[in-house]
Design goal:
The structure holds 2 protein chains of 2 kinds. By secondary structure, chain A is mainly β. Chain A has one domain (about 5-55). Chain A is about 0% helix and about 55% strand. In chain A, strand 1 (about 5-10) and strand 2 form a beta hairpin. Chain B is of the alpha/beta class. Chain B has a single domain, classed as Alpha/Beta hydrolase fold, catalytic domain (Rossmann fold, 3-Layer(aba) Sandwich). In chain B, strand 2 (about 60-65), helix 3 (about 65-75) and strand 3 form a beta-alpha-beta unit. The longest helix of chain B has 16 residues, at about 40-55. The chains are: A mainly beta, B alpha/beta. Chains A and B meet through strand 2, strand 3 and strand 4 of A and helix 1, strand 1, helix 2, strand 2 and helix 3 of B.
Chain lengths: ~55, ~170
Amino acid sequence: MITNCSIIIIESNLIKIMLMIQGNEVSLEAEIFQSGNEFNNTVVLICHPHPQFL
Amino acid sequence: MHNNVISYIFNHLVKNDISCLRFNFRGVERSTGKHSGGSGELSDVHSCITFLQKREIQRIIICGYSYGAAIGCSAVNFSESIIGFCAISFPWDFMGKNYKNLSQTEKPKLFIQGDQDSIASFDNFLSHYNFYKEPKEKIIIKGADHFYWGLEGILADKVVKFVKKFNPS
């Protein structure tokens, strides 16, 4: 459950990362947009549809 | 990261200067592992929430589309940091009761549904919607099927308006 992340690309406030999930050897591709310089505000976590719809 | 609905929502949030995170479930594109049919994907959502909390994010709104609504919104009670959810075309009828029960909450909820959707069936939408406790709201998008082609902008605008209610600044 505990996650670490590695940053791949930074484009302005858009950060592309890989979230590493310890224990089950899964890493998740993710993108984060940080509002201004603040990252302690409200964050919308967006979940994709089933892979067959991608 | 390649879905028309999700991309519109993500980009519209960015344009409105609202912090957001999107990710691919396990086994999709560059995410490793294998698709697990639900339990592993729910764990993926939990991991993203944990990741945000470790970065001292105190308020999280979940926004899920289709399968992502069923999985994502099922994590609504995982943490007090989650303050509400937006479910787009929640596929109750083929995801089973477990996800419906897990997504029950007294936190604010928005359900968006297309009136031409035959996958997340519009015919049964109201009966499922009525299951949920207040506070809740629904938006029916006329002419939209499950894929919202050509209507993504309208959809994304509804999501942003919902999110702004939590963060009026």
